[in-house]
Amino acid sequence: MIRFEDVAVVYDGAAEPCVQGVGFEVPEGELVLLVGPSGVGKSTVLGAVSGLVPHFTGGTLRGRVTVAGRDTRTHKPRELADVVGTVGQDPLAHFVTDTVEDELAYGMESLGLAPEVMRRRVEETLDLLGLAGLRDRPIATLSGGQRQRVAIGSVLTPHPRVLVLDEPTSALDPAAAEEVLAVLQRLVYDLGTTILMAEHRLERVVHYADRVVLLPAPGEAAIVGTPAEVMAVSPVYPPVVALGRLAGWTPLPLTVRDARRRAGDLRERLAAGAANSDTAVAAELPRRQPHLGRGPAPRRSLFRRRSSTTPQPLPRTVAEIQTLSVRRDRVTALRHVDLTVAPGETVALMGRNGAGKSTLLGSLVGLLAPTTGSVTVCGVTPHRTAPPDLVRRVGLVPQEPRDLLYADTVGDECAAADRDARAEPGTCRALVSELLPGITDDTHPRDLSEGQCLALALAVVLTGRPPLLLLDEPTRGLDYAAKARLVTVLRGLAAEGHAIVLATHDVELAAEIAHRVVLLAEGEVIADGPTAQIVVSSPSFAPQVTKILAPQRWLTVSEVREALA
Amino acid sequence: MTSTGHRGAVHPGAWWLWALSLGTAATRTTNPLLLALLISASAYVVATHRAPTPLARSYAAFARLALAVLLVRLLFAVALGSPIPGTHTLFTLPEVPLPHWAQGIRLGGKVTAEALVFAAYDGLKLATLLICVGAANALAAPGRLLKSLPGALYETGVAVVVALTFAPHLVADVQRLRAARRLRGRPDRGLRGLLQVGLPVLEGALERSVALAAAMEARGYGRAAEVPARVRRTTAALTLGGLLGVCAGTYGLLTAEGGTYGLPVLLAGVAAALAGLRLGGRRSLRTRYRPDPWDARAWLVAGSGAAVAALLTLAADRDPEALHPGVVPLVAPALPLWPAAAVLLSLLPALAVPKDPEEPS
Fold first, then answer.
1. 0.95 exceeded by the pTM?
2. A461, B89, B169, B340: least surrounded by Cβ within 10 Å?
3. A408 is in which domain, residue-wise?
4. Neighbouring residues of B217: CB distance < 8 A, sequence distance ≥ 6
5. CA atoms within 13 A on the CB side of B113
6. Is the sign of the CA dihedral A155, A161, A164, A170 positive or negative?
7. Greatest CA span in chain B, whole angstroms?
8. Confidence class of residue A279 from pLDDT cuts 50, 70 and 90?
9. What is the CA radius of gyration of chain A?
10. Which of B143, B218, B288 sits opposite A86 (nearest CB)?
């Protein structure tokens, strides 16, 4: 259905080809997953299927891409619109009209289908994707999962034979991701649609794939095989595969179910190890306690405290929220929330899209004024504090880290950050060198990858040395390697006494670093407790390792590795 | 849900005709009672029938704009004086002496009740007009109206719709980036703050346009049918010739000596242009999903608006006193019975058209 023959793409002005030696074939009716670290050209490969690369993006494509027998060299994207449906990373950028029903009809209108056909297909698609209740809703009012389903629906109505999806579940909470994946399953099984998709969150999708195409590194040839074969060699892999590799299982399990059936002896070994070394499973909780009340670590710290800051006794709480309610646009986003954050503590805020996580972070950093209740951060009320004073108390890395970056070069950005935070010149640059080794001063922030951008924004925020650090969805668009680096950095900061609050959908990240998890639903705190307790008891927020090794309470592969060592 | 109409709603064109007719009616009178009646009638219909879209909330914005226009008009009357001769002096502002070349302009001075009342009547007329446009926006989004354009103009229509949906995105971007400035510890208020986010906002808008253009291209926007060269040339000739005819005809109508040939040339030009548009539509493959039908209710809505406009124009002709209450000497405006009854006709859609059946409640 889709055939790549030795494809290489060079963008205008780039010295190196973005991808080269890509050759694979996607047979009709298969779900093929495209995996690889950030920046290997996954989006370019996907764009080549719909013809947007190179017709729309410019650049040179060598080799040949054919879709349903049509060569993209001779067919423009609009002439492939009836065989290929493409949904990009940001569904909002995809919508042309403003209501759900019109959006579903738009593609068919462009293709000139008869009105009766359009009407029938819109109704069918509304039912297929469970959108019937939303048909008249303006798209702006939909949640993330709903938007993604509308975006998929809008390319499905012309009945394309191929669906191309770029990171369809990255921005979604676990439940919404399941919703979208269930739809994709149905398309493949019931309608015989061919699907090619890229996704960073492999733990969500790898077991649905019939075949995996791996781009191991920029410019290297693609590796194609069954998911288990490719996962055995892939530089990116989900925790279930990591555990399988650790335990030496072959073939590698891809689902929690497969892994559980193999994990009997691993559980026994772990239980025996725990009994012997007296670090019983119950000892798990104390081990994860934050270093409460501890000042900046005396050992060589990742981020040295500046000598100019006057040493002051650390307060027992960094932030305190009391009966906070926030109303935004006539919607109550938060309702009677109480929360305290201690120094050195890492708190993960979890919950559906729209549960109020970002609102809570916004209140902590003074972007939103409380409707009722109070917020205190380091002794001040954030929304009444002038921004220059606030940056030395609390820092937020927003969902879109690029929003924080204005300058044309990394060097300028660092200098500006020093001035903003009234820090010694060179403070920010030193942080950048630690977080992002090998980035020169004259790099343009726009040329950085998602992970590098996040690191730069983090350095900018840390320049003011805020005792409270907030992160909104930090792992969106990060591959496993970038995520691992982020985990190391955040752990170092927490050990130094920084309190960290992060809003995330990424259960694996929360399991990795959070001491405490706070679950939000409809603006209320529905659970607040140590990570192990909260995530273990929740089916949708439990990390894969927990599910595999239940009833023992393990959260991450690294814990298991330490226990086995 | 009714089987025919898009969402069972009335044709958007009907609502626009209705609202614009009300606006026309408002220009015929300065009677504050009649104007208030017009405003209330349109507000009532908006309250019962507005579409559940974000744009429908713009009615409040239009109402605020109208109020601002009224206040500015009053402020000008106070500060710059008014040509209305009045005897009831309310207060006297210190007059700023101006050089002789600025004769005829006055700053400060006597403020009379007559001048204020005149300005208020005049301002209210403008305000009513604005509120009527707001009502049209709230009742039928301009985007829906554009969908009824002929095929040849479709691509232009899409461009306008996309531009319209961009404004709210820009506002959201500005808010997000100002928040980000605050996070950097820079002041987020004031003009400087706004100017410094300007460039990133524009960059963001540009990126979004490119992403949208890519999405539209991938979804088949701009697919065109093969049209014989002969038809293409005829289309071009008809459209160009028609537009020339329209220009010449209008010129003829407006100049004194062109009275004879003006009208026929104009009509021929319009006919040729329309034929060109229709022929041009052949190039477009597009079909329309659930087009809004122009049904009896649409006639009723448009008709009721047109009737109000026609009756008030007639009344302004017959009984100018009642529709333009005098300010010199000051008299309390009276509510003329027949024009008021005519204005009430505009409530007909509120009663005759069923409420939006699928409005989420």
1. no
2. B89
3. 401-464
4. A52, A55, A56, A76, A77, A78
5. 11
6. positive
7. 76
8. very low
9. 25
10. B218
Q: Which residue has the tokens 């503590």?
A: A345
Q: Which domain holds residue B241?
A: 229-283
Measure the CA angle with vertex A257, ends A255 and A262; round to 5°.
100
Interface test with B, best of A389, A406, A412, A458 (most B CBs within 10 A): A406
Q: What angle do CA B210, B211, B212 make, to 5 degrees?
A: 90
Q: How many CB atoms lie within 10 A of CB A425?
A: 10
Pairing of strands A84-87, A162-166: parallel
Is residue B180 within a helix (H) or strand (E), and if so which, with residue range? helix B154-183
Environment class of residue A116 by beta-carbon count within 10 Å: exposed (0-12), middle (13-18) or buried (19+)?
A: exposed
Contact (CB<8Å) A96/B162 = yes
Is residue A48 within 8 angstroms of chain B, CB to CB?
no
What is the chain A residue with the closest CA to B283? A112
Distance from CA of B53 to the nearest CA of A (A): 6
Q: Could you say which DSSP state residue B258 is in?
A: T
Q: Which residues contact B292 (CB under 8 A, 6 or more apart)?
A: B5, B6, B9, B10, B11, B12, B13, B144, B147, B148
**Domain shared by B270 and B310, yes or no:** no
Phi-psi region of A293 (alpha: psi -120 to 50; beta: other; left: phi over 0): left
Closest to A240 (Cα-Cα) out of A255, A219, A225: A255
Question: What residues contact A403, with CB distance under 8 A and at least 6 apart?
Answer: B176, B177, B179, B180, B200
Summarised one tens digit per residue, pLDDT across range B139-149 is: 887 777 777 77
Whether B131 is covered by a domain: the verdict is yes
Q: What is the pLDDT of residues A334-389, one digit of tens each?
A: 999 999 999 999 999 998 888 889 899 999 998 889 999 999 998 899 989 888 88
Q: Which of the listed residues A202, A236, A270 is the one where a domain comes to its end?
A: A236
Asked if B200 lies within 8 A of A94 by C-beta distance, the reply is no
CB atoms within 10 A of CB A191: 13
Is B196 in Cβ contact with A112 (below 8 Å)?
no
DSSP conformational letter for B152: G
Note whether B103 and B36 are same-domain residues: yes
Among the residues of A248-317, which ranges form H helices? Answer: 256-262, 264-276, 284-287
Q: What is the mean pLDDT of chain B?
A: 82
